[in-house]
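Chapter summary example.
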Amino acid sequence: MRHAGSLEQARGVLADLQFDAVLTEEKLPDGTGADVLAAVRASDTNLGVILLSATGTCEHASESVRQGFTDFLAKPVAADVLRTSLQRAHATARRCCARMCG
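The structure predicted for these 102 residues follows.
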């Protein structure tokens, strides 16, 4: 697990390491979760990206998934909900990889 406190840091970490899933805040000091999603998709179209937000409406969640996020979580998030979301994101990426490689 790695922490990035900004979009710039996230881009650097994403370029240097491989991940099973990405969890991003909606609002970052120098960008947005959508910017993180774009950075991920530039190099990996299958990696699960979960958006974490302080504003949790059904419409917002639906729009996030339409944008390409694997999941949308409204804060505060219970540990078991976060764990399940991360497991789903990782499993989705593995299935996509298996179809492409297998």
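To summarize the output: The longest helix spans residues 79-101.
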